[in-house]
Structure formats: C-alpha cells, structure tokens
Amino acid sequence: MAEKFSLKDQLFNLQKTRYLAGLFAGATSDFDAAGFEASVMARLLDLELKDRINWIAEQLAVHVPGPLSQVAPVIVAALPPPLDPSLRDDDFGDFIFAPLGEWVTALTTQEADLPLALDTLEALTQRFSMEFALRPLLKRWPDPVLSRMMQWTDHDHYHVRRLASEGSRPRLPWGLAVNLPLEAPLPILDRLHRDPARFVTRSVANHLNDIAKKEPQIVIDRLTDWQGQGMQAQKELDWITAHALRGLVKAGDPRALRLLGYDPDLELTARLQLPASVRIGDKLALGADVQGARGARVLVDYALTFQRAGGKTATKVFKWKTGSLGADGLSLQKSHPLKAQASTFTLLPGAHRVTLLVNGVPRAEGEVELLA
Questions:
Q1: How confident is the model over 266-322, as pLDDT tens digits?
Q2: pLDDT score of 310
Q3: Rounded Cα–Cα distance for residues 267 and 291 (Å)
Q4: What distance in Å separates the CA atoms of residue 61 and residue 39, rounded to the nearest whole number?
Q5: How far apart are CA 144 and CA 224, in angstroms?
Q6: In sequence order, what DSSP letters do the residues of 95-138 get, joined into one string?
Q7: Buried b (16+ CB within 10 A) or exposed e, 112-140
Q8: I need a labelling partner for 18 at 20 to 30 A (CA). Which of 119, 143, 212, 251 fits?
Q9: Cα-based torsion angle of the residue sequence 47, 50, 55, 61 in order, rounded to the nearest 10 degrees
C-alpha cells in the first residue's frame, strides 16, 4: 500500500535542514551546524507545515543571535545563487528559505530597521517568494514599504517585481490581512501589467480579481485604461483581463462580460437537455443548443443548484465553452461527474436545478433527480 503524500515532510525535513545548516556554516565560522540540525530535528517532525517554518526561524535566531544589523549580512552571505532570472514562470524556489523571511520580519522592530529588512527580503525573494514575510511590515509601515515596492517594479529579477504585486494583494490566501485602501497598490499594478513575465502578470491578474470582490468598477476602469494604453502585448493583456475578471464573469457581471467582448443583451435562443434522473457517483450528461446571429461571440456556462442539509441549497457555476456562433448555431455536450465523496460537500438525493448561462444571462433551465 502506497504511503500518503506529505507536503510538510517533502518541504521541511532532515535533508533540507542539513542543507540550510551547511549554507550558514559556510557564511560564518561561528555557526554550529550540528547543533542547529539537532535542535531543529528535536521537534520538526511533530509540527505542521506553518509551525515548521516558525520553528526553523526560531532556531536560526538562537544559533545566529543578534539584531537585524548583525544578522542580515550573515543571511545574505549564506544564500545560494538567485533563481534563473531569464525564466518567466513556474520557478518557485526552495521552501527551506521561507523561515529566513520570518526571521527577518521578527527582527524588524522599529522603522529604522526597515531599509535593511527590505534589502534582505529583496535578496531572499530571489530564492523563494517573500510575500508572507513582507506583509507584517507593509501593515505596520505602509507608506515606506509601498514606496520600496514601487521601486521593485523596475528590478531586473522577475521574482522581485512579482513581490511588489503579490505582497500587496488585498486577499492573499493564507496571508496576513494588511487592510490597505484598495487603490493604494494600483500605481504598482500600472507598471507591472506590462511585465514580460507571466509569473508577474498572473499576480497582477490575481490582485485585480481580489479587488473585484469588493469594488468591481475599480477593476473594470483599470483594465479599460490598460487596453487603451497598448503597453502590453494584446494576447497577454487579453489573458490578464480574462483572469482578472473570472470572478465577475462567474457572477454574470455585465460590465466584465462586455469588456471581454460578450454582449449580455445578445438576442438568441437556447435549449438545455437533461436526463430525468442520474445516480450519485455517475456522470450527468448535459446538452445545449444555442441559436443566434452568425459570428456572435458567446460564453456558455452552467450553474448547478445543489441540495444541502436542512433544506438549504447552494449554487455553483461551471465553465463550459467560449466561441462564436456558426450558421447552425452552437451545439454542446458535456459530462459532469457527480462524485459520491466530493471534497467540498456531500451530494444529497433529490431534485437539482441546472441553469444554462450564455454571456452571463440565464437562458434555459431544468431539473434532474439525483438518486442515491
């Protein structure tokens, strides 16, 4: 029987700890590599992932004591060469450097420490992304940190440029809430939207998607401005726009749909084909037929309204097809799996509504009975 995969054990283990110890032993003769390894491993395997990061940071502080002014040069001296600056995506670096960012943040106790702390995070993020370590500093000293982040938008290394966007996201998953005004980082995004690296532009799009959950019009206005500026390749700007608006599109926001070239007011007819019933664990066969003006652009989604415990319901929108109507319209077929042990919620027997959405507007609907 195969062992269950453990992310925490893959990222933080004896080999990684020994690697980190060797780096610091090479940076300063005072570092007790064996003692550091022993102290880390005394508890490491009993801890969850985030606690492992904090524990390693604490042990680094024990074995390299002192204020940030003494510790930062040792950290920088211990670092391996930066990640390849010629790449554009999918090079996240080594998680074993995450504790170093937490260590720097913990040592930054006053604003006078800030320039050195940001210098050190700038170096660290070229080995592993430092958005989580940056956010406590951004929350405490927003103006000087935002000023430095604006400077990072012109950095030679794309990981540093990405940090300017990712570190200031309003809703960074698992990240500390920084409570900045939504408009505060927009000048940073104005520069980064034209970046040549997808690793950076993906962060810009995710940042805008975060903003859209609270203030959609800010995002619509920004993307419209960028379309007019023509400072990014059109194909990449189209990708940024679609990715940034994905939440609004699922919600059927007409402003977002129009910006993407889909007219919510398009005249068309649509039919939805459903079976009368399907068993949980099988696949739901869906069919759709859309008719309208030839060449009209359409975005076809479908929404499932699930039965929940206590007589409640929940609706989730799923992507289906984007394209243009032909002379015979557009005919679609799809199989939707109805997993018996879904990871997000349990499927319950009973009538479930299916709604066909074209350009964000409900066009047809029907019910299917889920059988146990």
A1: 999 999 999 999 999 999 999 999 999 999 999 999 999 998 888 899 999 999 999
A2: 84
A3: 9
A4: 12
A5: 29
A6: GGGHHHHHHHHHH--SGGGHHHHHHHHHHHTTTB--HHHHHHHH
A7: ebbebbbebbbbbbbbbbbbbbbbbbbeb
A8: 119
A9: 170
pLDDT in tens, 197-215: 999 999 999 999 999 999 9
Q: Is 21 exposed, middle or buried (0-12, 13-18, 19+ CB in 10 A)?
A: buried
- Interatomic CA distance for residues 353 and 25, integer angstroms: 63
For residue 246, with 0-12 CB atoms within 10 Å meaning exposed, 13-18 middle and 19 or more buried, which class applies? middle
Given a cut of 70, the residues of the chain with pLDDT beneath it are 1-5, 342-344
Q: For residue 103, give both structure tokens.
A: 């260590």
- Name the token pair of 42: 């005394």
Asked if residues 338 and 274 have their Cβ atoms less than 8 Å apart, the reply is: no
Which residues are paired to 317 by β-bridges?
Answer: 303
Q: What is the distance between the alpha carbons of residues 20 and 2, in angstroms, rounded to a whole number?
A: 29
Whose structure tokens read 């074209």? 358
Q: How far is CA 314 from CA 133, 277, 307, 340, 347, in A?
A: 36, 19, 7, 17, 11
Q: Would you say the C-alpha torsion 73, 79, 84, 88 has a positive or negative sign? A: negative
